[in-house]
Amino acid sequence: MELKTIAQSIFDDPSRSFGVELWDGSFLPPASRDSPSGRVILRNPSALHALLPPTNDRRLAEAFIEDKFDLQGDTIGLLEAAARWKGPHLRAALPALVSSWLHRALASSPASLAARVSGRIHSEARDRKAVQHHYDVSNEFYQLFLDSSMVYSCGYFPSGSESLEAAQQNKLELICRKLDLRGGERLLDIGCGWGALLLHANRRLGARALGVTLAKNQLAEARRRLGALSSERVEIRATDYRELSPEEPFDKIASIGMMEHVGRARLDEYFGSVYRLLRPGGLFLNQAIADVAPQTPTLPWLRRSRSSAFVQRYIFPDGEAVPIGLVLQAAERAGFEVRDAESLREHYAQTLAHWVSRLERRFDQAVALVGRARARTWRLYLASFAASFRLGRLSVFQLLLAKRLANGRAVGLPRDRARWYDDLRPLPDEERPDVREPTEDSDRSPEVDRTQLHAPPP
């Protein structure tokens, strides 16, 4: 049976709401009118081998990385449509399975992009290698799709029409408000990235801030951004949080997008370490991705296993999104009182959509920096996570945890949440670090009068 006929059979299902262009230019229109803009393009017949069973997300991702197929148009929308598809229809494709299995046995993978970690999982040495694999790609590469403050976590979009720049400043301000952070207090930022929260906390509120990171590139760039600030006011260290001493406890602690590197087996150690580093009466804000559909992969028709996971191999070695219930239990076992839990799922979907759009617009620059295969790897990773958040497979939670005083009281907490959210606004231009050119106008919503979105400074 010829390959074109097999391809037509594979996609012959009424649940397919995306168009498919074959290698000879022929087009299989979507079976549904409710279809995203764009199409899946099979550049080579060998792309079919990635679809035939037994298959998994890594095999499909490797075919994308190697440019055997592509997503043209609305990348995230196409992945959402693929998730609603029932999967390859094999009625007439069975004769091709033997050929497919032989092809896979002989095929190679883009091994040069894979993470190289060894040793005991979540040991300090292995965690350092895993973190550096992800974050030390290139500062210039991250600058292609992040905001000017280089905040690599979920933004906060109160109305949904904010720019990425405003959303990230909103998020930094929201963190500080939830922590009731005040001038002179000692703040610890675990996994501080490029230092955006440290700068915000000090410049906005006068807090004394310490950040720790294991990523070499982040450390160098964060120190450059801190510039002339005294180390008594803001400091960043190449240190694992487990190495910090509890002899000088912190008033407030934040961990934003770091707990994904911890893993469920180490949650007790993680929360226990943070609890010891926090003074009685202190507050801890933990923001992390959570798996809210543990039995459902983004593309349900793919076989799912940790050993075959695309993200584990190429993006986040040893990373794990832990269900929120397990996180809350571990926090309470450590002694924390859970005071607030907020899901920002839709906010992260919007953040990722901004990142995908920016990376795709600057894709040639990305290729020049990290190579075509790695640039495609990251495009797929960001888009697939955006689809997972939209579909409700993943969420992200901000947890506010209190370390009670000896008398059982928790302090620094409002009776209602209104003061956290009222008049959220980004830093004025003169207070923001001047690190690179502002983002393009296309990242904003021109129909919205932004002067009405935020109240004037108090």
Describe the structure.
The structure is a single chain. With 458 residues, the protein is an alpha/beta fold. It has two domains: 107 residues, no CATH class; 321 residues, Vaccinia Virus protein VP39 (Rossmann fold), CATH 3.40.50. 36% of the residues lie in helices and 14% in strands. It contains 16 helices and eleven strands. Strands 7-6-5-8-9-11-10 form a seven-stranded mixed β-sheet. A four-stranded mixed β-sheet has the order 2-1-3-4. α7 packs across α8, α10 crosses α12 and α14 packs across α15. The longest helix is centred in the last third of the chain and has 20 residues. The chain is elongated, with a radius of gyration of 23 Å. The C terminus is likely disordered.
Largest sheet features: 7 strands, mixed
The CATH topology annotation of the largest domain reads as Rossmann fold
Give the ordered list of helices and strands. HEEEHEHHHHHEHEHEEHEHHEHHHEH
Average pLDDT rating: 86
Poorly predicted ranges (pLDDT <50, ≥5 residues)? Answer: 100-106, 429-442, 444-458
CA gyration radius, whole angstroms: 23 Å
**Neighbour order of strands in the largest sheet:** 7-6-5-8-9-11-10
Helix content: 25-40%
Count of helical stretches: 16
Structural class: alpha/beta
**What is the fourth-level CATH superfamily of the largest domain?**
Vaccinia Virus protein VP39
